[in-house]
Design goal:
Two copies of one chain form a homodimer.
Chain A: H1 3-17, E1 24-29, E2 32-38, H2 41-44, H3 51-62, E3 70-76, H4 80-88, E4 93-98, E5 123-125, H5 130-144
Parallel strand pairs in A: 3-4, 4-5
Antiparallel strand pairs in A: 1-2, 1-3
Protein backbone atom coordinates (compact mmCIF):
# COMPACT_ATOMS: atom_id res chain seq x y z
CA UNK A 1 0.00 0.00 0.00
CA UNK A 2 1.14 3.55 -0.62
CA UNK A 3 2.77 4.69 2.61
CA UNK A 4 1.04 8.05 2.22
CA UNK A 5 -2.42 6.54 1.81
CA UNK A 6 -1.65 4.33 4.83
CA UNK A 7 -1.07 7.51 6.85
CA UNK A 8 -4.28 9.06 5.53
CA UNK A 9 -6.10 5.88 6.61
CA UNK A 10 -4.50 6.13 10.06
CA UNK A 11 -5.89 9.69 10.31
CA UNK A 12 -9.30 8.40 9.24
CA UNK A 13 -9.21 5.68 11.90
CA UNK A 14 -8.22 8.19 14.56
CA UNK A 15 -11.10 10.44 13.47
CA UNK A 16 -13.54 7.54 13.78
CA UNK A 17 -12.23 6.79 17.26
CA UNK A 18 -13.08 10.40 18.19
CA UNK A 19 -16.65 9.90 16.97
CA UNK A 20 -16.07 11.74 13.69
CA UNK A 21 -16.96 10.43 10.26
CA UNK A 22 -13.71 8.56 9.50
CA UNK A 23 -11.96 10.52 6.78
CA UNK A 24 -8.27 11.39 6.83
CA UNK A 25 -5.85 13.32 4.65
CA UNK A 26 -2.14 14.05 4.31
CA UNK A 27 -0.24 16.63 2.25
CA UNK A 28 3.01 15.41 0.74
CA UNK A 29 5.91 17.54 -0.50
CA UNK A 30 9.24 16.22 -1.75
CA UNK A 31 8.40 12.71 -0.60
CA UNK A 32 7.48 13.57 2.95
CA UNK A 33 4.28 14.39 4.82
CA UNK A 34 4.15 18.09 5.73
CA UNK A 35 0.59 18.18 7.09
CA UNK A 36 -1.98 15.62 8.21
CA UNK A 37 -5.49 15.79 9.57
CA UNK A 38 -8.62 13.83 10.27
CA UNK A 39 -12.15 15.12 10.14
CA UNK A 40 -12.98 17.35 13.16
CA UNK A 41 -16.48 18.60 12.31
CA UNK A 42 -18.01 17.43 15.59
CA UNK A 43 -15.15 18.39 17.87
CA UNK A 44 -14.86 21.90 16.43
CA UNK A 45 -18.58 22.30 15.78
CA UNK A 46 -17.50 23.52 12.35
CA UNK A 47 -19.19 22.06 9.26
CA UNK A 48 -16.18 23.07 7.15
CA UNK A 49 -13.63 21.15 9.28
CA UNK A 50 -13.19 18.34 6.77
CA UNK A 51 -9.85 16.50 6.79
CA UNK A 52 -8.76 18.04 3.48
CA UNK A 53 -9.51 21.62 4.59
CA UNK A 54 -7.57 21.19 7.84
CA UNK A 55 -4.61 19.56 6.08
CA UNK A 56 -4.48 22.23 3.36
CA UNK A 57 -4.68 25.05 5.92
CA UNK A 58 -1.95 23.44 8.01
CA UNK A 59 0.27 23.06 4.93
CA UNK A 60 -0.20 26.63 3.72
CA UNK A 61 0.61 27.99 7.17
CA UNK A 62 4.05 26.37 6.79
CA UNK A 63 4.97 28.29 3.69
CA UNK A 64 3.44 29.49 0.48
CA UNK A 65 -0.30 29.85 0.09
CA UNK A 66 0.09 27.85 -3.10
CA UNK A 67 0.94 24.18 -2.77
CA UNK A 68 2.06 23.75 -6.37
CA UNK A 69 4.60 21.02 -5.61
CA UNK A 70 2.38 19.18 -3.15
CA UNK A 71 0.12 16.14 -3.45
CA UNK A 72 -2.93 15.40 -1.32
CA UNK A 73 -3.95 11.90 -0.23
CA UNK A 74 -7.45 11.57 1.20
CA UNK A 75 -9.47 8.46 2.03
CA UNK A 76 -12.74 9.67 0.45
CA UNK A 77 -13.60 11.49 -2.75
CA UNK A 78 -13.60 15.19 -1.79
CA UNK A 79 -16.89 17.08 -1.57
CA UNK A 80 -17.27 20.23 -3.72
CA UNK A 81 -15.97 22.46 -0.93
CA UNK A 82 -12.78 20.45 -0.55
CA UNK A 83 -12.33 19.93 -4.29
CA UNK A 84 -12.53 23.69 -4.85
CA UNK A 85 -10.09 24.29 -1.97
CA UNK A 86 -7.67 21.80 -3.57
CA UNK A 87 -7.91 23.80 -6.78
CA UNK A 88 -7.46 27.17 -5.04
CA UNK A 89 -4.38 25.78 -3.25
CA UNK A 90 -2.96 24.62 -6.59
CA UNK A 91 -2.37 21.06 -5.32
CA UNK A 92 -0.49 19.11 -7.99
CA UNK A 93 -1.96 15.62 -7.61
CA UNK A 94 -5.02 14.36 -5.78
CA UNK A 95 -5.16 10.71 -4.69
CA UNK A 96 -8.41 9.62 -3.09
CA UNK A 97 -9.77 6.35 -1.69
CA UNK A 98 -13.48 5.55 -1.82
CA UNK A 99 -15.74 7.13 -4.38
CA UNK A 100 -18.64 9.10 -2.90
CA UNK A 101 -21.69 9.03 -5.17
CA UNK A 102 -23.81 10.66 -2.46
CA UNK A 103 -21.75 13.76 -1.69
CA UNK A 104 -18.61 13.72 -3.86
CA UNK A 105 -17.67 16.71 -5.97
CA UNK A 106 -14.89 15.32 -8.18
CA UNK A 107 -16.40 12.42 -10.13
CA UNK A 108 -19.97 13.11 -9.01
CA UNK A 109 -22.43 15.98 -8.70
CA UNK A 110 -20.93 19.36 -9.41
CA UNK A 111 -17.64 17.85 -10.69
CA UNK A 112 -15.77 20.94 -9.60
CA UNK A 113 -12.66 20.39 -11.74
CA UNK A 114 -14.63 19.92 -14.97
CA UNK A 115 -15.65 23.53 -15.62
CA UNK A 116 -13.97 26.47 -17.31
CA UNK A 117 -14.44 28.42 -14.06
CA UNK A 118 -12.01 26.00 -12.36
CA UNK A 119 -8.63 27.64 -12.90
CA UNK A 120 -6.46 24.75 -11.73
CA UNK A 121 -7.20 21.06 -12.13
CA UNK A 122 -4.92 18.66 -10.26
CA UNK A 123 -4.06 15.28 -11.68
CA UNK A 124 -6.68 12.98 -10.13
CA UNK A 125 -6.23 9.35 -9.09
CA UNK A 126 -9.36 7.85 -7.53
CA UNK A 127 -10.06 4.47 -5.95
CA UNK A 128 -6.70 4.10 -4.22
CA UNK A 129 -7.18 1.67 -1.30
CA UNK A 130 -10.83 2.07 -2.14
CA UNK A 131 -12.00 -1.03 -0.31
CA UNK A 132 -10.31 -0.25 2.98
CA UNK A 133 -11.37 3.41 2.87
CA UNK A 134 -14.99 2.47 2.20
CA UNK A 135 -14.99 -0.28 4.83
CA UNK A 136 -13.99 2.23 7.53
CA UNK A 137 -16.99 4.36 6.64
CA UNK A 138 -19.36 1.40 6.34
CA UNK A 139 -18.48 0.06 9.79
CA UNK A 140 -18.70 3.54 11.33
CA UNK A 141 -22.21 4.17 10.05
CA UNK A 142 -23.38 0.59 10.71
CA UNK A 143 -22.47 1.06 14.38
CA UNK A 144 -24.39 4.32 14.63
CA UNK A 145 -27.53 3.93 12.54
CA UNK B 1 -29.69 49.74 0.74
CA UNK B 2 -30.05 46.67 2.91
CA UNK B 3 -28.25 47.48 6.15
CA UNK B 4 -26.73 44.01 6.10
CA UNK B 5 -25.36 44.32 2.59
CA UNK B 6 -24.00 47.74 3.59
CA UNK B 7 -22.04 46.01 6.35
CA UNK B 8 -20.79 43.33 3.95
CA UNK B 9 -19.64 46.14 1.65
CA UNK B 10 -17.86 47.80 4.58
CA UNK B 11 -16.01 44.51 5.19
CA UNK B 12 -15.13 44.37 1.49
CA UNK B 13 -13.77 47.92 1.58
CA UNK B 14 -11.70 47.13 4.66
CA UNK B 15 -10.31 44.03 2.93
CA UNK B 16 -9.32 46.12 -0.10
CA UNK B 17 -7.56 48.62 2.18
CA UNK B 18 -5.51 45.67 3.53
CA UNK B 19 -4.47 44.73 0.00
CA UNK B 20 -6.91 41.83 -0.25
CA UNK B 21 -9.34 41.26 -3.08
CA UNK B 22 -12.27 43.31 -1.73
CA UNK B 23 -14.97 40.82 -0.77
CA UNK B 24 -16.90 40.96 2.49
CA UNK B 25 -19.57 38.89 4.20
CA UNK B 26 -21.84 38.97 7.23
CA UNK B 27 -23.95 36.26 8.89
CA UNK B 28 -27.33 37.43 10.19
CA UNK B 29 -29.50 35.70 12.80
CA UNK B 30 -32.76 37.09 14.21
CA UNK B 31 -32.17 40.44 12.55
CA UNK B 32 -28.67 41.04 13.85
CA UNK B 33 -25.16 40.39 12.60
CA UNK B 34 -23.50 37.55 14.53
CA UNK B 35 -20.33 37.24 12.44
CA UNK B 36 -18.57 39.37 9.84
CA UNK B 37 -15.39 38.99 7.81
CA UNK B 38 -13.46 40.26 4.86
CA UNK B 39 -11.18 38.27 2.63
CA UNK B 40 -7.84 37.46 4.35
CA UNK B 41 -6.14 35.18 1.81
CA UNK B 42 -2.97 37.28 1.60
CA UNK B 43 -2.67 38.12 5.29
CA UNK B 44 -3.14 34.49 6.40
CA UNK B 45 -1.36 33.00 3.40
CA UNK B 46 -4.35 30.69 3.21
CA UNK B 47 -6.10 30.20 -0.15
CA UNK B 48 -9.27 29.10 1.66
CA UNK B 49 -9.57 32.29 3.76
CA UNK B 50 -12.42 33.75 1.71
CA UNK B 51 -14.80 36.14 3.50
CA UNK B 52 -17.64 33.60 3.50
CA UNK B 53 -15.51 30.81 5.01
CA UNK B 54 -14.24 33.06 7.79
CA UNK B 55 -17.73 34.40 8.57
CA UNK B 56 -19.27 30.91 8.60
CA UNK B 57 -16.53 29.54 10.85
CA UNK B 58 -16.91 32.50 13.22
CA UNK B 59 -20.68 32.00 13.35
CA UNK B 60 -20.51 28.26 14.01
CA UNK B 61 -18.00 28.78 16.83
CA UNK B 62 -20.71 30.81 18.60
CA UNK B 63 -23.19 27.98 18.73
CA UNK B 64 -24.50 25.19 16.62
CA UNK B 65 -22.52 23.83 13.70
CA UNK B 66 -25.68 24.28 11.65
CA UNK B 67 -26.78 27.80 10.83
CA UNK B 68 -30.32 26.87 9.88
CA UNK B 69 -31.87 30.14 10.98
CA UNK B 70 -29.07 32.29 9.57
CA UNK B 71 -28.69 34.28 6.36
CA UNK B 72 -25.41 35.15 4.64
CA UNK B 73 -24.79 38.43 2.83
CA UNK B 74 -21.69 38.54 0.63
CA UNK B 75 -20.59 41.11 -1.92
CA UNK B 76 -19.61 38.61 -4.64
CA UNK B 77 -21.14 35.41 -5.98
CA UNK B 78 -19.53 32.64 -3.92
CA UNK B 79 -16.98 30.32 -5.51
CA UNK B 80 -17.68 26.56 -5.42
CA UNK B 81 -15.77 26.14 -2.14
CA UNK B 82 -17.82 28.80 -0.39
CA UNK B 83 -21.10 27.71 -2.00
CA UNK B 84 -20.54 24.16 -0.76
CA UNK B 85 -19.61 25.47 2.72
CA UNK B 86 -22.86 27.49 2.76
CA UNK B 87 -24.73 24.30 1.98
CA UNK B 88 -22.86 22.25 4.63
CA UNK B 89 -23.62 24.96 7.21
CA UNK B 90 -27.33 24.84 6.27
CA UNK B 91 -27.50 28.61 5.74
CA UNK B 92 -31.15 29.56 5.13
CA UNK B 93 -30.78 32.43 2.63
CA UNK B 94 -27.87 33.61 0.54
CA UNK B 95 -27.80 37.22 -0.66
CA UNK B 96 -24.91 38.11 -2.94
CA UNK B 97 -23.77 41.23 -4.77
CA UNK B 98 -21.88 41.01 -8.04
CA UNK B 99 -22.17 38.00 -10.29
CA UNK B 100 -18.84 36.25 -10.99
CA UNK B 101 -18.83 34.59 -14.41
CA UNK B 102 -15.10 33.89 -14.09
CA UNK B 103 -14.99 32.02 -10.78
CA UNK B 104 -18.52 31.83 -9.38
CA UNK B 105 -20.02 28.53 -8.30
CA UNK B 106 -23.68 29.41 -7.78
CA UNK B 107 -24.98 30.73 -11.11
CA UNK B 108 -21.85 29.80 -13.05
CA UNK B 109 -19.49 26.87 -13.55
CA UNK B 110 -20.14 23.95 -11.24
CA UNK B 111 -23.42 25.50 -9.94
CA UNK B 112 -22.96 23.72 -6.65
CA UNK B 113 -26.57 23.98 -5.45
CA UNK B 114 -28.03 22.52 -8.65
CA UNK B 115 -27.07 18.85 -8.15
CA UNK B 116 -28.69 15.95 -6.32
CA UNK B 117 -25.42 15.58 -4.35
CA UNK B 118 -26.11 18.98 -2.76
CA UNK B 119 -28.15 18.13 0.32
CA UNK B 120 -29.19 21.65 1.28
CA UNK B 121 -29.94 24.49 -1.10
CA UNK B 122 -30.38 27.93 0.45
CA UNK B 123 -32.79 30.45 -1.01
CA UNK B 124 -30.58 32.51 -3.33
CA UNK B 125 -30.90 36.22 -4.10
CA UNK B 126 -28.18 37.47 -6.46
CA UNK B 127 -27.35 40.93 -7.78
CA UNK B 128 -28.08 42.80 -4.52
CA UNK B 129 -26.09 46.07 -4.65
CA UNK B 130 -24.51 44.50 -7.67
CA UNK B 131 -23.14 47.73 -9.12
CA UNK B 132 -21.41 48.89 -5.95
CA UNK B 133 -19.99 45.43 -5.22
CA UNK B 134 -18.60 45.09 -8.73
CA UNK B 135 -17.21 48.63 -8.73
CA UNK B 136 -15.13 47.88 -5.63
CA UNK B 137 -13.54 44.93 -7.42
CA UNK B 138 -13.08 46.83 -10.69
CA UNK B 139 -11.24 49.71 -9.02
CA UNK B 140 -9.10 47.31 -6.96
CA UNK B 141 -7.89 45.38 -9.99
CA UNK B 142 -7.51 48.51 -12.15
CA UNK B 143 -5.11 49.94 -9.56
CA UNK B 144 -3.00 46.78 -9.51
CA UNK B 145 -2.84 45.52 -13.07
Amino acid sequence: MSAFMAQALAEAEAAGARGEVPVGAVVVQDGRIIARAGNRVEELGDPTAHAEMLAIRAATVLGDKRLEDCDLYVTLEPCPMCAAAISLARIRRLYFGAYDPKSGGVEHGSKVFDHATCHHRPEVYGGLEERRSAELLRVFFAERR
